[in-house]
Write a structure and sequence with these properties.
The protein is 14% helix and 49% strand. The chain is built from eight helices and 30 strands. The longest helix has 17 residues, at 54-70. Mean pLDDT is 86; it is low at 1-24.
Length: 572
């Protein structure tokens, strides 16, 4: 029996129709190749009250015969339909199933006939399915569009069905002229420079049109984070040249991100922590960026950062970023770190939406003790010169609320540390990996697992070399940067349910392994632990931007000791 795939949307109808068959309501006779349930579901689509007018009967006949034609039964016919008060009987003569007979392909000059045959996906003697022929023709047209012939046309000629049910036809190919993009027009860029858009689209005037590449331009430009919308590129022609037209709508190009957290304490009312992050994403319409961040972790510890990013140096896909960080660690020390990063994009010319970069970093970390002499601990003054190399890959469909794709960032850093009494080497390795799985068609959700690994090793490592861990960005359910670690492996899992365009609900679960050895001056013993956190988060869109509300519980927490984080992501 011919097996036919049944779409999910009519599955319920098939189940109900099968029950009706058992009850004797609708009966099909003569169908040897198509299933009863499929044909009965077709009948039920036209009348749910079992009252069949002449018009409905004709429509039922037409639909059933179309299903047979779709499956290659061109000579199928309905002999009769009998209707009484108890049942409906349909008598079908399926006839002989059509087969692919002789066919000819002509008109092709650029593509070889053998390649076209492979794309077409049919050969003589196969059962003839019109849908298979249509899919094959679309594949051929896609192939032409990706090698510079977007105007290629295909016609089916001399289509006939002989007495043996063999289908004969000719495929005429008109390749058209090869299209080279000699001009580009950008519409809607009031602030953003046209030159930036062309560079980011990885477009060169004079290149051959490729539909596969040009369909990715929209996704690529949206990753800049400065456009509200981008249209698919359109081909245009005039008397002398051909080109593409890209329509953009600029969004708000600056962002504000803030978080407030409440940390309960056993013998007091607790205290607030938080951070403010401001990013200017398109200075002077050139894609340059400037950002500043202030963070307060507890009553005594604060951190400040500034950064400036230059996207193109000498009109080459070479970017550079200057970064400065200062951290005041309670009354123990101050850490300062200037850093320079150079990145080179190596994205393939066809897959322009999959961004791949390599980057090099050089920085110097200075630790300046601030503890007074009467304190029982004091960190050594030191300077560490660091050299790092890393990779960056991003195939996400959106940088803010991604539904599909992968994000990867990894780097290795070698440091030479110098104190007043000794020299030492220090290594650092990090990898961040994120996956986005789209279940919007079934659950209206996106499942997001994130994996992170950090390790710091070397001689004479102290507290200033380690990194801080915990909180909203790493392990939810714990205070911001509650733990100090030299090794950490953690995973974040969340399922983002889109309840409406401006309301997202996401349950989450985080798990982490952290470790640090003895770290002078204060950590006199090693620490190792397996931790977890879980909870529920909300993202609500308001007039001021996205409002984030997260309630998280760590290991051993009760409802009263859970952590609450409130954040605002606003653009202006």
């Amino acid at each position: 029996m011919l097996i036919r795939k049944i779409q999910y949307k009519i599955l319920l109808s098939l189940i109900i129709s099968s029950l009706l068959v058992a009850q004797g309501k609708i009966q099909i006779h003569g169908n040897k190749n198509l299933e009863d349930a499929l044909l009965i579901a077709t009948v039920r689509e036209f009348n749910g009250q079992n009252s069949f007018s002449n018009e409905v009967i004709e429509r039922v006949k037409e639909r059933i015969l179309n299903i047979y034609i779709e499956n290659g039964f061109y000579y199928a016919r309905i002999d009769s339909i009998k209707i009484d008060s108890e049942k409906v009987e349909i008598f079908i003569n399926e006839g002989k199933q059509a087969r692919v007979g002789e066919f000819e392909i002509y008109g092709n000059k650029t593509l070889k006939t053998e390649e076209i045959m492979e794309l077409l996906g049919i050969k003589r003697g196969d059962v003839f399915y019109p849908a298979t022929l249509k899919r094959g023709i679309n594949k051929i047209l896609d192939r032409y569009a990706n090698i510079g012939y977007p105007l290629a046309q295909i016609e089916i000629e001399n289509f006939s069905l002989d007495e043996n049910s063999d289908v004969r036809f000719k495929i005429k190919i008109d390749e058209g002229e090869i299209v080279k993009i000699k001009d580009v027009k950008i519409v809607g860029n009031n602030l953003t420079k046209e030159n930036l858009i062309i560079k980011e689209a990885r477009f060169k005037k004079g290149e051959i049109y490729s539909e596969r590449k040009f369909k990715q331009i929209k996704k690529r430009l949206m990753k800049l984070g400065i456009f509200e919308s981008v249209s698919d590129p359109e081909i245009f022609f005039n008397d002398t040249t051909s080109g593409i037209l890209i329509k953009v709508s600029e969004g708000r190009m600056n962002s504000f991100d803030g978080v407030i957290g409440y940390m309960p304490e056993a013998n007091s009312r607790g205290y607030l922590v938080g951070y403010i992050n401001i990013l200017l994403k398109n200075l002077f319409g050139t894609g340059r960026k400037f950002g500043a961040r202030w963070n307060s972790e507890n009553k005594y510890t604060q951190e400040f950062e500034i950064r400036y990013y230059e996207p193109y140096i000498f009109n080459f896909p070479l970017g550079a970023e200057f970064f400065f960080q200062q951290r005041k660690q309670d009354s123990t020390y101050v850490m300062r770190k200037p850093q320079l990063t150079a990145e080179l994009e190596l994205t393939g010319w066809e897959n322009v939406s999959e961004i791949f970069k390599v980057f090099f970093q050089i920085s110097q970390t200075s630790i300046i003790p601030t503890a007074t002499e009467y304190l029982p601990f004091k960190i050594d003054e030191s300077k560490t010169l660091n050299f790092g190399l890393g990779i960056f890959y991003d195939s996400r469909d959106d940088i803010n609320l991604a539904k599909t794709g992968i994000f990867l960032k990894s780097f290795y850093e070698l440091g030479n540390k110098k104190t007043s009494t000794a020299r030492a080497k220090r290594d650092k390795f990090n990898i961040e990996l994120e996956f986005y799985f789209n279940f919007h068609k079934t659950l209206k959700s996106v499942f997001v697992p994130k994996l992170n690994f950090w390790v710091i090793s070397g001689d004479r490592i102290d507290e200033g070399d380690a990194f801080r861990f915990g909180g909203m960005k790493t392990l939810r359910g714990y205070r911001e940067r509650e733990f100090i670690a030299t090794r950490a492996l953690w995973a974040n899992f969340e399922n983002r349910f889109t309840l409406s365009s401006d309301f997202i609900l996401f349950p989450f679960f985080d798990i982490a392994y952290i470790y640090h050895p003895v770290l002078p001056p204060r950590l006199n013993s090693s620490f190792e632990s397996l931790l977890y956190g879980y909870g529920l988060g909300l993202k609500i869109f308001s007039k001021i931007g996205w409002l984030n509300l997260i309630y998280a519980l760590g290991r051993g927490d009760s409802f009263k000791t859970g952590k609450i984080h409130i954040g605002v992501e606003s653009e202006f």
